[in-house]
Amino acid sequence: MTNLISKFSPAMAGLVLVALGACAKAPVPSGYDDPHEVKNRRTHEANIKLDRALVSPASNVYGEVLPRGVRDTISVFSDNAGLPGVVANNILQGNVENAVHNSVRFLFNSTFGLLGLFDVATDIGLEERDSDFGETLHVWGAPEGDYVVLPFFGPSTERDGFGILVDFVLNPLSLVLPTEVKHLPKATWVLAKFGDRYTFGDTIDEFYNSEDGYDLMQLYYLDSRRYELGIEVDDNELEDIYDAYDG
Known about the structure:
The protein is mainly alpha-helical. Helix content is 68%, strand content 3%. It contains eleven helices and two strands, in the order αααααββαααααα. It is globular and about 50 Å long.
């Protein structure tokens, strides 16, 4: 227990200091500037090559070998294993209602759902109220930052890219699990992503194969992410590109 506290305390202390220093509301982003476009396009092309060489073939094998029910169970388990991280972000954001809601959901699925293999909570109205550390930084007042394309993860922003790293490394569940299974949540998360790639393969391929794929992914990500965070941005550029893409 002492070792756990010694590992966790510096990270929490840093987060608390950031939270205390974030007095202002996050500035509202506008437009779709891309100051790192050259580098982003290189990473985008590298992601496409990685997808064609590894991710897509592996996801096809995953989807064809495992029945839909098994894939769904892995995804449900992965989502449940990630809930303690969501609750931690709810708390850091000061959202007590969502923290309690997601905690009860985790409790139900971890017990009545047989360690999270089945989603029994949604059936009784306890749907997941998702969150992440990128949203936490937004609540604390951190600006969106520049648009970036991350290796493997794809479209993001400087703020959300840091958030992805924190969420992936500091899942509270991994800190309390026995050593022999502490990496299980990350492993099932990767498998669930292969399942998503298989399920939504046609849509992803459309983006990757389109001449305007880079622009579409950039604008779709920024627009949908800002919507998730409750940001209203008036910009006709996105609407025009959607219209052009729809033909």
